[in-house]
Amino acid sequence: MTTPFATLQEHAEDAAHSAAEGAPDLGGAIMHHLVDATEIELPFGVLHLPTGWTVHLGPLGAVDLAPTKHVVLLVLAALICLAVFIPLAMAARRRHRGKAPGGFAGAMEALVLYFRDEVVRRNIGHGADAYTPYILTLFFFILVMNLLGLVPWGGSATGNLGVTAALAVMTLVLVEVSGMKTLGAAGYLKTIFYTPPGMHPVGQALMLVIMTPVEIMGKLAKPFALAVRLFANMTAGHTLVLSLLGIIFVFANMTLGRWGIAAGSVAMSSAIMVLEVFVAFLQAYIFAMLTAVFVGLIRHAH
Questions:
Q1: Exposed, middle or buried: residue 29 (CB in 10 Å: 0-12, 13-18, 19+)?
Q2: SS3 at position 253
Q3: pLDDT at 240
Q4: Between 20 and 30 A from 19 (CA), which of 108, 109, 121, 153?
Q5: How many angstroms separate the CA atoms of 182 and 292, rounded?
């Protein structure tokens, strides 16, 4: 008599036998998709990128300037943004001449106005319009990079911690320079060295000793959180999709239930892919919104 436990045991034995016969390296396939590389997989073959572009900086060592897959995807995302927004800018110019844009141009204009009014102005306040171009560029650039990871033979440059860290450092520079310009030298220093007025000198000294490192760490923690959040979300989503699809190949040699496993794997992967589209928009929005929040916080440090 066959029991459910015996059936499960047979499935496990089939899976182990499949692995022993040389099942595909699922972990290696996932890492090959996630990490940077010097080649790009295309429908007609593999494109090998040039290597050996090394610049020697003397005692500082050498820097490799050769393009990689993520660098190519960064450039591609920038070109897509240019291809979309240059015609939109021309449509906006026609609007000022009395011709209102329609269709896609009208929808994008509505999105831009929403960002300006509800994200930038609401979080930064007076003088917010000067930051609108940067924050909008940040949102659409990250969004395109995220979506490129969901197309066949694509990849997500935002799954590279170096890319997200560079974006976060740019935000850090913007925030701190904005604080210096708005608050002045004395006001900016108070965001690092601050003691409540009227406090005893001994208490002020203790407050400076304790709180100054905390304030400095707080300034560095904001871009760190931006970089890690974007990197982790994009990497986790791709890992989950590839892991679910990989189940098909891991259990391909099973004698029982392989078609059911394949159907369930495809269904779950499709659901996660739909969710990943939402995550791509959400993470781009969060990065842009938090940039506006950090600028607003330092401009109104009181």
A1: middle
A2: coil
A3: 86
A4: 153
A5: 15
